[in-house]
Write a structure and sequence with these properties.
The structure holds 2 protein chains of 2 kinds. By secondary structure, chain A is mainly alpha-helical. Chain A has 3 helices and 2 strands, in the order αααββ. The longest helix of chain A has 18 residues. Classes of the chains: A mainly alpha, B alpha/beta. The interface between A and B is large, with 51 and 70 residues.
Chain lengths: 96, 490
């Protein structure tokens, strides 16, 4: 039983907003299957009583004063936009 | 001996002293490095962007200040290259990706701000694996970088351009980034010194994020002294990075003592495994013997969860990457597909056309591992094993001061050798990944060469925020050996 099917690869690509060619889907199905097989090695370990580590530093929330600072000028940020219109980012149609 | 070397092959601390004594000029030094780039970079491809105009302007400014007798920081006038994953104001920052090809950063990363305060001569932006994902530099969207010791071989990755530049003299020193070994592994393959500092030691503000709980910026240099000088310049707490640690930063040059008597060095049996290249094992074992003869106390230790590190990493890093790379959507900056009718199609095509194969592979692994129904089995499981790996180190460091290991199982491999086998490529990071998972500092330094003349590296791992002790052991070893003075014939 393969770890991951072509249909699952298509579903995950949809979640990731990633367009893949048919050839890429086939390659990824094979490669992801082998990688997931390898990763399954972790199941050899019983971790029921182990706390997860999301972060190595003993820090939790870091707060700062809520004070106003000068933001990056609008023009500077928009200068990088692939398309813009009247001081906004322009994108293709969102709704019908 | 090194005074006979051409300027571009000399370490920063020597050049810095020569500049102050008036033996050389900053413009002369900068010109030597930019000429070196012109001479060899067509072959090596260490740079994605060369910033000669900016660099020469700073050089002229430093000469003026030197002539006026102004006190200058240690790195003033030193030609330094920056991995193209670190934002540089007004200069292209591409991450070696098509999706960021047009991106000119509107701000400087904190490390850049700090280096500019030192008045470094910026040489340009260095080649890398796309978004720092890779171990060979073959994943650069703009073409691979080559190893200066043998141009048929890879320089390592992902900071391959940084390591190759320092080895070849297209930069005096460089910054890289290390998520699973991306500074230490290319440093080993190219015969230079590379350090990943403790997680939180260096601000990540302006470092394009790959895996935020693992990424760390660090130096690649021609010797250990230069490593300490750059650490002095870039470390410290930063209000713009809430994960940067608010701990005191020592003067790292104070640890440059050629003396290891009484220091306890741990040798983990799990790092001398089957499959390790015999010449790598021999060189590292010889280094251990030498340190023992110098008075260090050698202790056998065990890090029993080492064999699970790669699997753990290849869940955590792609999971974080899939989330970090969601921002490349073609809306605010970077590449946008010209062929989309609606918004979702624009996202999908922009990303499908803009990302290379390895980045897509990792986004897919990460998205899968985080997707509904799989989270506990993959991501949570990996975070728990990460705890076990960290506990291995906590326990080991109760008995020893530093841990010594090989950096990589093999010397530099050939271009194309592992490119069709991603899993084999991932396994080449087996000795460097654990330090990222545990957040520890690690340094890679040359400890020999193969019969074919390829560099071999050894790794020293330290306790959190104890870069000082690994610098000390590295310095003592370096000063007793000739390896840091070797240069590739190009």
């Amino acid at each position: 039983m393969p770890r991951i099917t072509l249909e699952e690869v298509e579903y995950v690509a949809q979640l990731a907003r990633l367009e893949l060619t048919e050839a890429e889907k086939r390659t990824l199905t094979e490669q992801l299957g082998r990688i997931l097989d390898y990763i399954a090695k972790l199941n050899e370990l019983n971790t029921d009583a182990v706390e997860p580590t999301s972060h190595v530093l003993p820090i939790r929330n870091i707060f700062r004063e809520d004070e106003a600072r000068d933001p990056m000028p609008r023009e500077e940020a928009l200068r990088l936009a692939p398309a813009r219109h009247d001081g906004y980012y322009e994108v293709p149609r969102v709704i019908e | 001996m090194s005074t006979e070397l051409p300027l571009y092959h000399r370490p920063a601390h020597e050049l810095s002293a020569a500049l102050r004594r008036g033996e050389i000029g900053t413009v002369e030094l900068a010109r030597a490095v930019f000429e070196r780039i012109r001479a060899v970079d067509e072959k090596l491809h260490t740079y994605l962007t060369v910033t000669e105009t900016i660099g020469m302007e700073t050089a002229a400014e430093v000469d003026r200040l030197l002539n006026r007798g102004e006190p200058l920081p240690p790195l003033a006038g030193i030609p330094i290259g920056i991995k193209d994953v670190i934002c540089t104001r007004g200069i292209r920052t591409t991450c070696a990706s098509k999706i960021l090809e047009p991106f000119v950063s509107p701000y400087d990363a904190t490390v850049m701000r700090k280096l500019h305060l030192q008045r470094i001569v910026l040489t340009g932006k260095l080649n890398m694996d796309e978004f720092a994902m890779g171990s060979s530099n073959e994943n650069s969207a703009f073409g691979p970088c080559r190893n200066p010791w043998d141009t048929d071989r890879v320089p390592g990755g992902s900071s391959g351009g940084s390591a190759a530049a320092v080895a070849a003299g297209t930069a005096i020193a460089a910054l890289g980034s290390d998520t699973g070994g991306s500074i230490r592994q290319p440093a080993a393959f190219c015969g230079v010194v590379g350090m990943k500092p403790t997680y939180g030691r260096v601000s990540r503000f302006g470092l394009v994020a790959f895996a935020s709980s693992l990424d760390q910026i660090g130096p690649l240099t021609k010797d250990v002294t230069d490593c300490a000088l750059i650490l002095n310049a870039i470390c410290g707490h930063d209000r713009y990075d809430s994960t940067s640690a608010d701990v005191p930063v020592p003067d790292f040059t104070e640890f440059l003592i050629p003396e290891v008597r009484g220091l306890r060095i741990g040798i983990p049996q799990e790092y001398f495994i089957e499959g390790i290249h015999p010449e790598v094992e021999t060189a590292v074992r010889r280094a251990i013997e030498q340190l023992s003869e110098m008075g260090a106390q050698i202790e056998e230790i065990s890090l029993p969860h080492t064999e699970y590190a790669v699997a753990t990493y290849y869940i955590i890093a792609p999971a974080e990457a899939s989330s970090n790379l969601a921002r490349y959507d073609g809306v605010r900056y970077g590449y946008r597909t010209p062929n989309a009718e609606d918004l979702i199609e624009m996202y999908r095509k922009t990303r499908g056309e803009g990302f290379g194969p390895e980045v897509k592979r990792r986004i897919m692994i990460g998205t899968y591992a985080l997707s509904s129904g799989y989270y506990d089995a993959y991501y949570l499981k990996a975070q728990k094993v990460r705890t076990l790996i960290k506990q291995d180190f906590d326990r080991a460091f109760e008995a020893v001061d530093v841990i010594l290991t090989p950096v990589t199982p093999t010397p530099a491999f050939r271009l194309g050798e592992l490119v069709d086998d991603p899993l084999q490529m991932y396994l080449s990071d087996i000795f460097t990944i654990p330090a990222n998972l545990a957040g520890l500092p690690g340094i890679s330094l040359p400890c020999g060469q193969t019969r074919e003349g390829l560099p071999i590296g050894m790794q020293l791992l330290g306790k959190p925020f104890d870069e000082g002790t690994i610098l000390r052991v590295a310095y003592a070893f370096e000063q007793a050996n000739p390896y840091h003075r070797l240069r590739p014939a190009l």
